[in-house]
Amino acid sequence: MRKVLRVITLIITPLISVCAFLSGCKSCGGKHVDIDNSDIMQDINVSPTQSPAYEQYSRQAIEEYKQVAAMHLDGDGEVDIENAEVIQAANSAAAKLFAYACYNERTLDKYVYFSNQHGETDLGGSGFANATRQEYYLRVNESENTCGYRYHYTIKKVLESGGLISGFKSLFESARIRITDKTNLLYRFEGDKIIEGGENASIGVNMLECEWATGKDWGKPDVEMKKSAFIAPEDIEKDIQESAGNDNITMRANINILADNIIKKANIFEAEDGCISVIMWIDTDIANRDEASLKMIRKGNGSGDCSWKKDAEDEDDTGFMIYCTLWQNGMFRFYNVQERWSGTIQGFKGTVQSQTTYHYSYSDRDCDMKANLEMLEAAKKLKGE
Questions:
Q1: Is 224 left (phi over 0), alpha (psi -120 to 50) or beta?
Q2: N or C, where is the chain less crowded by C-beta within 10 Å?
Q3: Nearest to 345 by CA among 116, 115, 114, 133
């Protein structure tokens, strides 16, 4: 355990990071709306009561790893995480656990996550930009007792910039809310005058805030908020490959985690509360040769030519890491992605180093759509509906 704790300490040390930001509407001409996004994610430490579709498979993957790990202990009685057989077992189990956690979301009644991404972009002679991106995604799927809803916002803010890029800072900032109501219609809001506000105590970050107005996409047909079909475990890799590059993909972290040997090394350990933590170091050479992974990273970052990049000073190529904590049933509690990639960003050629943290909640309180729907009805009245 002491070895693992040393590894965790290195991983969660705050890093300067970045992402590619897409432009947004700065003056949509809509009606001003009062929206408060500060009181969210209060129950990130509350165990979920839902039974996910892949629970039995997650538990099986953990047990398979434990059987191998128990045969390879060091002099202190701890698992020898450097043993080749332990590494092989950990790599296999870690890939399955992450994939199952992603695919669990397809069949849940409801869930919400909040992501916070800080970053630094090096654009060479064009300058640099330090930025933050925050995303909040609340989804309630249609069932016998409820309609399907979605409340989704992204806010992107450049905190510091220098060089030529400073004159194009607006290209890297935007704020947008998308609400899907019970009629499966989309209502979009646009934000402007983005600032860094107060801290959300639950997730420990300063919330980005802005002024909101109704947008142009108002009452348009949207994707139905229904549960997706169950994909058999043996068919998940095929589904990842076939859906890579689509708008609504199931995999997180823009990586085909089931590709052969894409995990260079993994560690798995169980916390006192029964949660499972997984650390994965991704082989960037293999990731850059994997067609599905490249499609996902390019779609996710809005860059048609980006690929993962090694740190010239990092001989072990540990620059791309995924660290996640799963509830006992295999559902995401938290995950963190650290990566470095290079490519064209809004017409500028540059290198990006990013760290993104996701927190999940499944409680009735955090997944309550009432306040959001009331705000939507008030906005409709402002537009004269």
A1: beta
A2: C
A3: 133
Quickly list DSSP for 108-159: -SEEEEEEEEEEEEE-GGG-EEEEEEEEEEEEE---SS---EEEEEEEEEEE
| Predicted local confidence at residue 166, as pLDDT | 85
For residue 4 the two structure tokens come to 């693992």
Contact between residue 18 and residue 206 where contact means Cβ atoms under 8 Å apart: no
Q: Which two tokens stand for residue 335?
A: 């995950």
Segments of 275-347 assigned E as strands? 276-282, 307-308, 321-326, 332-345
Q: What share of the chain is helix, strand, coil (3-state, %, to 5)?
A: 25, 35, 40
Q: Which residues contact 29 (CB under 8 A, 6 or more apart)?
A: 213
Q: Could you identify the residue written with the tokens 């997706």?
A: 228
What's the CA gap between 244 and 252, in Å, rounded? 11
Length of the chain: 385
pLDDT tens readout for residues 236-295: 999 999 999 898 889 999 999 999 999 999 999 999 899 999 999 999 999 999 999 999
Q: Residue 343 has which token pair? A: 């490519």
Q: What is the pTM of this model?
A: 0.91
Residue showing tokens 């001003």: 32
